[in-house]
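Weekly sync, protein design subgroup
Attendees: M.S., D.O., the rotation student, P.L. (late)

Item 1: inverse folding check
M.S. brought a backbone from last month's batch and wanted to see whether the design step gives back something sensible before we order anything. D.O. pointed out we never logged the input encoding, so this time it goes straight into the notes. Structure tokens as presented (119 positions):
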């Protein structure tokens, strides 16, 4: 909403070196007393701007969570079901290459365990 991460962290907007070296309206007509007042005002508003940014981040994360849960299909395994176990990078055997199957042997479900987390 117009705030950069730099402005939220350092309490001021950035001025690139080209703008400092070239005389522009922004750099030529600076009144130090007004500049100090404006910086104090911006510093006072910083907490509110950070709070608004946090609210937007939280709202975005909730939207992502809802979108993710729409795609997830919950599945409950029963005793006797035949399942495959996915091979993840950390459990993959060394020197197997990229053509190794992504799934390990079929397994039978023999007992129902603890509580299943649902989204």
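Designed sequence read out in the meeting:
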């Amino acid at each position: 909403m117009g705030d950069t991460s730099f402005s939220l962290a350092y309490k001021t907007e950035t001025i690139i070196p080209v703008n400092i070296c070239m005389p522009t309206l922004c750099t030529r007509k600076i009144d130090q007393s007004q500049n100090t007042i404006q910086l104090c005002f911006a510093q006072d508003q910083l907490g509110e701007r950070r709070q608004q940014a946090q609210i937007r981040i939280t709202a975005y994360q909730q939207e992502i969570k809802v979108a993710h849960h729409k795609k997830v299909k919950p599945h409950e395994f029963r005793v006797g079901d035949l399942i495959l176990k996915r091979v993840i990078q950390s459990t993959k055997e060394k020197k197997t290459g990229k053509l190794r199957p992504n799934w390990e042997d079929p397994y039978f479900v023999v007992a129902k365990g603890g509580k299943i987390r649902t989204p």
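Discussion: Residues 75-112 form one domain. The longest strand covers residues 103-108.
Action: P.L. to compare against the previous round before Friday.
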